[in-house]
Amino acid sequence: MPPRALEPAGVALVDKPSGPSSFAVVAQIRRVTGARTGHAGTLDPFATGLLLILSGRATKLTPSLVGLDKRYVTEIDLTSRTSTGDPEGEVLEHHTPPTRDELEEKLESLRGEIELPIPATSAVKIGGERAYKLARRGVEVEMPVRRSTVRELEIVGYTGDTVTLDVRVSSGTYIRSLALELGGHCVCLWRTEVGPFSVADAVAPEAFAADRLLPEAEVLERV
Fold first, then answer.
1. pLDDT in tens, 98-119
2. Is position 44 annotated as part of the catalytic site?
3. CB atoms within 10 A of CB 149
4. pTM
């Protein structure tokens, strides 16, 4: 098989919709460019928002981009926990949501340097196999914890049963794990920023064209 083309080269800012996997979106962009294609971090199928997709020679920029902070807006149902921390999991329990004061206290404990368990439906490898594949087969494993930095965690909406949070975290932080720590699960999750890049500048996968690629030099200047 011939090697993938190194042109066109650049970074695509793509606004992922809910439903398809990140890898499906990467493949969609690859069909447009015909070039070698990679990414600087995925989103769960239910999640939406900014993906950085690298094309051609720009795939070598991956180490410079994967460690960038991420910003999200998430709505969390505080009345129930699911097995995955998102709408796709099995409901484990229903309960009375915390009061506003109790919620604020929990949020305070989640700011700064923290350790969070990695969700069982993540892509982390356990014994050489993806955790989500084990979960699908009903195999229960003890998931490791990951040290994360929660740089910003603010309430932007609150109903009593649900809370909407604006969160800026270090790379590799699972927002679903934050939701589970609050006793709830993510109803929706929207990635708004990756480092200096904003979803406001992104295009839907079907609207992408090769001339939307950011040149490598511009990307490096911004990071």
1. 999 999 999 999 999 999 887 7
2. yes
3. 15
4. 0.90
